[in-house]
Amino acid sequence: MPGISRTRRRGCHDAGEPVLAAGSGLLPSIPLRGVVVSGLIVEQRTEARRRSDAGRVRLSGRDVAGLVLCGEHYAAQYDLLALALGVQSPRLRRIVARWRGAGLVQTATLGPGPAWCWLTAAGMSACGLGYPARPPALSRLAHVRAVLAVRLWLEAGQACADGQGWWRSERNIRAALPANAGAAHIADAEISWPSLDGARFGGQTWAVEVELTPKPAVRTSRIMSGLLSRRGYAQVVYLASPAARPVVARAAAGLPSAQRGRVAIRDLPPTAGLPGALR
Predict the structure, then answer these.
(1) Whole-angstrom Cα distance, residue 223 to residue 272?
(2) What is the CATH T-level fold of the domain 145-272, as seen in this structure?
(3) CA-to-CA distance for 6 and 174, rounded, in angstroms?
(4) Does the first or last residue of the chain, that is N or C, have fewer Cβ atoms within 10 Å of its Cβ?
(5) What is the pLDDT of residues 121-132, one digit of tens each?
(6) Using one digit for the tens of pLDDT, what is the confidence trace for 169-218?
(7) Cβ–Cβ < 8 Å for 92, 129
(8) How many CB atoms lie within 10 A of CB 141?
(9) 205-211 vs 76-77, strand pairing mode
(10) The pTM is what?
């Protein structure tokens, strides 16, 4: 992707973020660390010492950022959630335990690698999200992980830092579609670039596609063409595994010349795969 680098930063905005939109990113835990979000105080049964807020858990900006991230991405594996919140594994486990004690999340080991965390109905309500509260489908675990890994990698790039791009999750895109939208392909995510003076991509919206396994070339070409024409994205960015990249490249090469230059193909970041050392 033009302009994307691995420089660390705080992250892109999520266009569907219902809370804590101020600041430079969806993950406001870094600038807002320690700030109490008074509008999200969730009831919790506890024998804590008597205070004015006894019996309740208070959510910081980092808490809300992590909860919203889990809701927008169906679920998050512990190592990626720790990366998103800028904490080490022991600290992340304490944070998640507090969320779980408040009834906001459920957790489980669903497959290889670290445990997963997803929102309960109470968590969805607290975050202002209307998505179904359920664990991610086992058949989609690898894809759910890869999409979140791609998001964190792109948010760490200089292009997002300079252009203030907003990440919009597939779940948010799908929820906003009208009932008669049909079965057209939905991108795995969008990045919208605000119309800032001198911004390189100002006013554009890009589709993000994460490819783990190769699809038939005809189908891949049809998806590319649909995203570029029917959906009107200025660019479609593919993050592909080594197995899927050759098919994606052939499909892009077969597009009309006017569309071919609007498809960018990049390798998946290393974090898209399971961390072998973490359990």
Answers:
(1) 22
(2) Trna Endonuclease; Chain: A, domain 1 (3.40.1350)
(3) 29
(4) C
(5) 999 999 999 999
(6) 999 999 988 777 667 789 999 999 988 887 788 889 999 999 999 999 99
(7) no
(8) 20
(9) unpaired
(10) 0.79
